[in-house]
């Protein structure tokens, strides 16, 4: 059974001081897609008990998987014992996929840059990394041909990653991520350093989105897997399962 690493943000606030934290369905939904097929651990920049977005808890208080996730004793234990990113070793040859999630740039408060990535804790090798923050070696991971997946704001952590020729991994690729319309509708344009839809296009990517805001949309192009928004969290997990043939 492969090992999967979920990395959750330690940032409790955005650049403007608005409440942040890891977004509940973007952890819960892929967790229950992947948990039957893999061993899952958690990590965050500051270690145990990373802050959750209370807004997401309220918004998804009737979502069965989110309710289950918050009450899950195994999940609580894993969150309470989450490793610090400083304890993570980037050299993990058996890694097969990494998946990034919501608002990685909030991690700037802890000194980490977009385009960074690490993938193994104290020598334990993971087949999938589900990430909410940027960490070391995105480029190395992508260039090795492993699935590099991101959902919602997660693709922001890949904007500095390059292929073997030094080009952005988005260049010439079909991809998605949180749309300008969605960012505008929730009035968070001021809270982010760039609009992801625009950034993907500026890097040479072919940005795609669902016909309607908030509808699920997943794009797979080679080993780059992207999901548009929270509704895409379970579908990106399912795409990873298919890609890994689990």
Descriptive account of the structure:
Keywords: Lyase, Stress response. This protein is of the alpha/beta class. It has a domain of 171 residues: Class I glutamine amidotransferase (GATase) domain (Rossmann fold, 3-Layer(aba) Sandwich). It has an eight-stranded mixed beta sheet with strand order 3-2-1-7-4-8-12-11. Strands 5-6 form a two-stranded antiparallel sheet. A hairpin with a 2-residue loop joins β11 and β12. 51% of the residues are buried. About 14% of the residues have low confidence.
Task: Itemize the secondary structure elements and their pairings.
Elements: E1 3-7, H1 24-34, E2 39-44, H2 54-59, H3 64-71, H4 73-80, E3 83-84, E4 97-100, E5 120-121, E6 124-125, E7 128-131, H5 138-143, E8 147-151, E9 174-175, H6 180-185, H7 196-202, E10 206-207, E11 218-221, E12 224-227, H8 233-244
Parallel strand pairs: 1-2, 1-7, 2-3, 4-7, 4-8, 8-12, 9-10
Antiparallel strand pairs: 5-6, 11-12
EC number: 4.2.1.130
Domain DJ-1/PfpI: 140-240
InterPro entries: Class_I_gatase-like, DJ-1/PfpI, Prot/Nucl_acid_deglycase
């Amino acid at each position: 059974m492969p090992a999967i690493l979920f990395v959750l943000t330690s940032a409790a606030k955005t650049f403007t001081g608005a409440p942040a934290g890891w977004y509940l369905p973007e952890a819960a939904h892929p967790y229950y897609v992947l948990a039957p097929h893999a061993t899952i651990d958690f990590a965050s920049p500051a270690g145990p008990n990373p802050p959750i977005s209370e807004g997401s808890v309220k918004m998804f208080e009737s979502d069965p998987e989110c309710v289950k996730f918050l009450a899950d004793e195994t999940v609580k234990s894993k969150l309470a014992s989450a490793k610090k990113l400083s304890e993570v070793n980037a050299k993990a040859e058996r890694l097969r996929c990494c998946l990034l999630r919501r608002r990685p740039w909030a991690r700037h408060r802890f000194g980490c840059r977009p385009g960074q990535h690490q993938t193994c804790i104290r020598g334990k090798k993971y087949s999938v990394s589900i990430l909410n923050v940027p960490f070391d070696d995105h480029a190395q991971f992508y260039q090795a041909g492993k699935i590099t997946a991101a959902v919602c704001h997660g693709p922001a952590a890949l904007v500095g990653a390059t292929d073997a020729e030094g080009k952005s991994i988005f260049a010439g690729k079909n991809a998605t991520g949180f749309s300008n319309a969605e960012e505008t509708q929730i009035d968070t344009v001021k809270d982010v350093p760039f609009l992801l839809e625009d950034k993907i296009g500026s890097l040479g990517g072919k940005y795609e989105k669902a016909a309607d805001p908030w509808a699920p949309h997943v794009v797979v192009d080679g080993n780059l897997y992207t999901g548009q928004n929270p509704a895409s969290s379970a579908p990106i997990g399912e795409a990873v399962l298919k890609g890994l043939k689990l």
